[in-house]
User: Which sequence fits this backbone?
């Protein structure tokens, strides 16, 4: 059930019994020498479709560009500024809320989106209240990060230990390999990898993390791992979704 | 060559000989009782991939939500306000321009985006100049509407005559059927269809066009037609692209 | 009937039987070596007054600065950024809409305003709806470009052929000569004139069009031509206005 | 020397010896039962032309809509919000500053503009500095209110005493009568007139000042008075201008 | 009665009989070689507490950063841009207005805030009206500048004559000495002091006023003077407050 | 060393050897029936002064209004919208960065600020880079939440167990009692307290948490506890600060 493959009449019918929607949100940013630039959007969308299949809830179009300013010193990265992402998400949710949707479950693939997305939620509640939207107090937004689920975490720990790292991780790379088994990139990864530096601006980031990886060894990823991560993430976020709408 | 399936190192290499990029832009909006809500994004992306294949140019992630405020009285529509779309496109292009891209070829699937996108281009040229970006005067943006090509137009005329209409047209519906042959919607279309009304606000629009169609008969669409439209659009926009970058 | 020459009591009375208003919009920008910087505003205002006289509708103050960023490399040009023009027009229309006006007929003298003005209209409909304005769905905005009327076009073609060009045209220069017969500028125009280049940023534009003309020969203009253009434009836009409010 | 009647080449020449410009700013707002809605713009423009004639400085297009939110409960009033006026003036001045203008002398006809215009000046200095504009520290803006000059004040006092009031004053009405002797409105003014109330929001204002006058008796105005005010204002602002640019 | 020392239940009770609030607003900016950077906030807050004590009205948290862009060439200055201050004050007042407050008495310590604050008030009245706030027409904001009271002025004149100046004045320095008798700075003040220059941008300002003083001699200040200024200011603003709420 | 008690000359001297600054940020929001509305600002400021004393770093003025939209259904709460807080912090940091500060250590007292503040940091790095600020890549911002330190957490656990809750906690109330021992509020707390509900909009929040507490029992707080929390927080944030600037 993907919104972009529905007609408006199907949506109208759907709203008679369900006012929830799943919104995948990713990013378009460097993921190290071998990771796909679309990794975060690919993963979020894939997991969202799996959850949707379980819970029979419409999936909205993937927000494929997010807040990745700190990655913009690497070519290919596209980022919104936080204030842009806030107003973007506000317009996105407002359109759906005016039509009757009330529960917005964001499945997120990028840690850098979390702060701005949470800020956007606060702004949205206030904005819809200012619009005098009917039942605006029933509007609920939730962010669910597939990569932060407990079982996903434990699997990554088990498979990769310290080499999971925190960006361009083997777990997310594996998931993209599961989705695109024909698009697996090979490159010789340097032995040294940046690790443990706080994140500040874009050029500072590239100085600390010269090839884009943050403490990770994505060479460990396999499509089979990716399937495992996918299945665990779908399972965990299905539970999270059901709790959210209950 | 899709940006989201590249690594940043591949982009860095690409930029050594090519500073152009193709950006599909669609919309998420009602397309009549049988048209897919994602029609405009689906068509733009498909055509963009075809052009990319011809000209070996990277395709950026599809902008799948555009300016569709006049459709927002139909559930399922998601729209940005024009000022939001402008700042969104500005951030999008700025990220790429800082990395070295200079020519931005937008393949557009939605008439409602045209005005705002052109406004955004003006804003972008000025903004990049204010940033003191190197060679900012070489930044060029162009919007190419697949549905406005001469041969596409003539084919639609030939196949559908007056019943092509101007929204939820059989030509765009056909193109989505070509892309998604398994997702062809059937619904009894009313005999009467709104026609010829100017477009104002959302509720006015729904009053004039009760089922969302604008003078069109999308029941005439077939996947085979869609393939024809696709091929013509790719041919025409390939030419347009080559002229643009020359 | 010019708004700035009315009292508020006259407007209150007017609104009892008429909720339409005409808004001239021009630009303050270079018009080649002999064209007046105020050309677009002068023409729009003059035509608006002519139409007003025919249809007994109030003319609001001329918006004399528009979207002319691409002309800003020529001194004397003043431009708003698109987002500024949008919010400006929004405030302008909102003030009038709150007072009871519902139909806004913009008579435009500058091609560069069109995209941004259309974007502004979409933003306005949505904004007034958000304000819960009474009968906000009756708000209608229309842009009418005096220089795009069919008869105006044919006359320009007949008088000037290819030398009409597309900026600093003899037709618009003629119209300003009709309005200001004492302010006719003479300068030796170079034999070569930029032609056929797409419009990008300001410095790029000046590079392509070194003296500001776009394929035009304004030396052909005469005040008598100007009167003809004026009369045709008033005739055509009077019809357009009557259709708009019907 | 009006900018809109110059060519860009004339401006280029002008800038070789003069980097100053005069900008009239008025408002479009109710001026009581007999005052013209355009009073403030009419007066500012007229005085600006007089000063320009004395000092041979270009006059830019009149900013005819200003900050008049408190008058918007009277039909015919058009107002920008302060943030809109700030960004409008910023774009206006930025265009001219990039071309080489450095001294901006605003001749103002509306008390309600003063605070926002001063705020805009502060914003502009900072903005141009952020743009790294050459010699941005030489940019100077000044607001000169024709109605606040000492001699203008004394004349109003002498002619009208207490009946000058503070809005829809006989002095400004007189000045418009001098400019438009054929557009003198007659209406029976109520004996009672609002007086001495602080200004808050629009509906509050209309409650306090039911016919729009603030303690004034505009019936005392004559075109001859208007000429006197005009001459004094031009004299005083000419001096003010000369001091400003020295 | 300071808001930050109340509980929300105390505020709820307070609102049953009083819908007024006092808001101190200062600035964080250089005050010459011996003046405290927080001078304006310190003075505004101190006077506000004194007035509050007289009139039993809650004092909201001090707005300690204001509009001081022209001082930003001196280290330690922190300034908002005018548009930021406007939206800041708008959010501030909106929160309180939604809770039931209607009268907002700003006690101001910085001349540079006045224009922007007045602009903010206009924006707020309009905004609250757009929100359809109950009784939005009863919202009233007033700015009261402690340093502009007649008796304060006369005392400064008497004590310091011309040496009062207009920034880093002995009167405001004295007031801070009264508040912080242990934080009295000593520095050798240069004999020459900038005087009489208009205020433009930050670097221009520092050029005109090299040590930050504007025609003042703060060495004349004493804590005893400060107490006198405090008492007069409290007396005058108490009267002003009572008039405001009556 | 408080910025507001320094002169600009002292700041200039300071910057010769130290480019760091501590910025306390709190909130103005309900803290249950007995908690002070200023709790978060009071705590952040107190702890900041303690850290400052240890590390000899200037403390900037406390940001006393933050992001507390979800508390705005309780009177006395004042909140900025996230986009307002972002631009506020951007202006705040930009002023200091232009003067030479590079390391910004925010000591935060309110969980609701975290997301927006982190978003602001991303926006700031990008903005300063756009300004072409010298060494903009050395700008570093960090948020340190006093209430999240490990030892603070363990003490709260030990003293209050489950009754610590997550808003209007006995630990933060205790800290305010330590600061203001004379302002200890007594009220009978209901036996039932909201607990475990996710946070959405303001009216939803008040419905879930009728008296404002979130699972806490602030009656357990004592000034002596407050001193312990203060000392631990200062110790932990001193370490955090030293690590940040190293």
Assistant:
């Amino acid at each position: 059930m993907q919104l972009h493959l529905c007609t408006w009449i199907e949506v109208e019918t759907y709203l008679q019994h369900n006012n929830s929607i799943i919104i995948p949100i990713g990013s378009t940013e460097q993921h190290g020498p071998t990771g796909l630039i679309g990794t975060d959007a690919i993963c979020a969308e894939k997991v969202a479709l799996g959850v949707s299949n379980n819970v029979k809830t419409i999936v909205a179009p993937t927000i494929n560009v997010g807040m990745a300013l700190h990655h913009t010193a690497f070519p290919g990265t596209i980022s919104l500024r936080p204030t842009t992402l806030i107003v973007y998400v506000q317009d996105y949710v407002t359109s759906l809320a005016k039509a009757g949707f009330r529960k917005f479950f964001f499945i997120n693939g990028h840690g850098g989106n979390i702060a701005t997305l949470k800020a956007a939620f606060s702004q949205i509640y206030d904005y819809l209240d200012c619009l005098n939207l009917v039942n605006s107090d029933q509007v609920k937004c939730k962010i669910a990060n597939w990569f932060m689920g407990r079982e996903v975490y434990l699997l990554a720990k088990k498979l990769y230990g310290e080499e999971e790292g925190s960006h361009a991780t083997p777990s997310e790379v594996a998931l993209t390999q599961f989705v695109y088994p024909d698009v697996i990139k090979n490159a010789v990864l340097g032995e040294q990898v940046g690790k443990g530096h706080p994140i500040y601006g874009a050029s500072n980031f590239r100085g600390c993390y010269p090839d884009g990886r943050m403490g990770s060894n994505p060479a460990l990823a396999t499509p089979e791992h990716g399937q495992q991560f996918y299945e665990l993430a779908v399972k965990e976020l299905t539970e999270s979704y059901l709790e959210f709408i209950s």
Summary: The beta strands of chain D are 20-25, 103-108, 140-145. DSSP finds eight helices and three strands in chain D. The CA atoms of residues 30 and 75 of chain D lie 8 Å apart.
